[in-house]
Amino acid sequence: MPKRNLQQPKPENLWIEGLKTVGLSLFLAFGIRAGVAQSFFIPSGSMEPTLEVDDRLMVDKLSYRFQAPQRGDIVVFQPPPAAISACGLPSNSQDSFIKRIVGLPGERVAVKAGQVYINDRPLAENYIASKPDYEQSVRVIPPNFYLVLGDNRNNSCDGHEWGFVKRDRIIGKAIVRFYPFDRIGLFSRNRS
């Protein structure tokens, strides 16, 4: 039987290989988070019943580079300064918000008698916790801006209090809830 020349790895090679593996793992993890997807947790009840406190979800950060946000999308965004102030957050807050897109650029939006109206037509919303107990006169959404509201309309610091969100502040759209395990599932867009 021929003698095989099997070499045992040298200890320094193991260290180098280990460092390469850790480095590649970190690069992939941060690269994915920076450009493709990111996980978020839900800290409040502003999106109930759709999202509950402590839900974990994955947000697609890529698709809005190729298509515009749509009504019904659940989006994570960096709140505008008016939102930080209206919601009582510290001025240096880095918190992201999550809400549902209700109004699109150029649309006229109003809230009357517990009903959201888009361009004078009632918006069907089977996902809200209860009808809004506030009224809002007609406002026109500027180009590149969106109206976002929480599904828990009466317990959400959202666009009805502080205005519109500019498109470049939108981080991405929620695509899947991965925790708790008994509520895992994809999000579908509710449009009217």
From TrEMBL:
Domain of life: Bacteria
Organism listed in the record: Chroococcidiopsis cubana SAG 39.79
Cross-referenced InterPro entries: LexA/Signal_pep-like_sf, Pept_S26A_signal_pept_1, Pept_S26A_signal_pept_1_CS, Pept_S26A_signal_pept_1_Lys-AS, Pept_S26A_signal_pept_1_Ser-AS, Peptidase_S26
Membrane topology: Single-pass type II membrane protein
This protein's name: Signal peptidase I
E.C. designation(s): 3.4.21.89
UniProtKB keywords: Hydrolase, Protease
A GO MF label: serine-type endopeptidase activity
The Peptidase S26 domain, residue ranges: 16-179
Cellular compartments per GO CC: plasma membrane
Cellular location(s): Cell membrane; Membrane
